[in-house]
Amino acid sequence: MAADLQSRARWVLSLSILAAFTAAVVCPFLGGLGLDYAKLWRHESPDWNIFINLRLPRTFLALLTGAALSGAGALFQALMRNALATPSSLGIEAAAALGAVTAISLFSGDETGFPLVWFAALTGAVIVVALVATIGHIGRFPTFTILLTGIALNSICTAFILLLHSLAGITKSFQITHWLMGGIDAVEYPVLLMLAAAILPICIWMLRLARVLNVISYGETWAIGRGVDCQRITWQGFAAGALLVGTTTAVTGPIAFVGLIVPHLMRRIVGPDYRLLMPASIFGGAAFLVICDTISRTVLAPIEFPVGVTTALLGGPFFVWLLWSR
Amino acid sequence: MTTLTLQDVSYCYPGGKLVLEGISAEVLKPEVIAIVGPNGAGKSTLLDLIAGQKTPMSGTVQIAGHATTALQRDELCRLVAHVPQHVPPDVPFTVEEVVLTGRIPYGRGLYENDEDRAAMELALRRTKLESFRDRRFSSLSGGEKQRVLTAAALCQQSQVLLLDEPSAHLDPENEAQLWELFQDLRDSGHLIFVVTHHLALAAQNSDRIWLLDRGKLVADAPPCDALRPDRLQEVFHVPFHWNESAEGRVFLTYGR
User: Fold this and answer.
1) Which of A57, A112, A131, A252 has the lowest tally of Cβ within 10 angstroms?
2) How does DSSP assign A143-201, residue by residue?
């Protein structure tokens, strides 16, 4: 059976890497503006510049963000033992957004670059995760209560975002609106490197944790009885999730439903075993967001709409279907 | 040989309610010990303390000479396997996968090795679950689920087994088989602790009874002594009677 599982895991890993790789290779060539491949081959502008400085970094950003959000969704669902636990439903995305919006509101345009917004979003995410985890730990509440607490925190953060938004001047207001729509924009390669340095080690840690995540899904008492230090794993998991969501949200703005749709879709395909589900979610999430971003910039070309619109339009109906089918 | 010592163990819940008070006992040889008592007497909490799921407020629990609080979680789980009263009924894994969770204390690699699979096969055989191996846990009856959880505890290959109401959902045939299994395990050197409300079965099948009442160990003795009618009436507030059948079998009844 284990040999069979290992062979299935190899297949799942290979296919999901292939899906992400294919999306990453094909999608940069798609867009409102057709690329002249001959010019591209000769590294001639503007095609070479569009490809290298716009589409390629955008694709890498979508890969990293999709992997992070989807992996975080799978992780939270395992730790909370609840299929509806996601970075959104736990209030983490809204908290990261509140951090970023606060930074945009308080500082001048020149200062609100990557490091400041990144730090502010990460701080927001970490505070809410610490709050949710502490409430869950001290009160020993059932996960349903913790989820409802996350939803309440989500509303509170959203209210503060609206307040800051309404107090901001026109320029800031536009900046906040643009940021809140959530989008995959071209970023500089050093930013991508920083993101990769933050996200990839956590993804590897999550992949290595898969067997323990399986046991945690039996409930805390069973897991502790099998030698799992649930408290430590939960705290580490929440910290990892906050880092993944805070880091990516700072760059892209909130992108809804990726952490919900992809793990659930993958669960339907590969089953509940996290040794299959986690790699499928991470690489599937990467492929999914690259595809969603490509849809966002090609369907109404030359007009582009934020990728958050595509994920929400796909995710909303999926969420309703999920609720009905449970 | 694995021994277990409880030394003046007390436990209170956060908020101050004392659940167990000054429990002292010693088990020096393989035995089947039934832990009985009224609801809220502290039976499950006592199992949790032995399993290291909870930490005593005072006193020590020692297994094989080691204080449970001094052991790493996986070290402790190689000595003690605990089957709690409740496990989510909708666990989405197969019987084999559930049983293999018993191998987690032996290694955190992503996949189980040959030794793990051999332990699983043995556990499935001892609990007569071979034909269930590919069934989904969530599709099983309450009794079958209980057997699977017991198999997982066996797969853990710990010398001390703690089972919290393992026969709660079992029919008489499966219940009798389970108690036979406990006796087999005792004969192969295990210490078995079974929390149960079935006093008659406990009397028939266990070597010793720990009778708990309001957090205190009021009897630690062989069944015929621990389950004396006067003592049981004092603890459970209903009259008990030992009876003898025409075939000479002794059994326990209760009620006015």
Assistant:
1) A131
2) HHHHHHHHHHHHHHHHHHHHHHHHHS-HHHHHHHHHHHT-------HHHHHHHHHHHHH
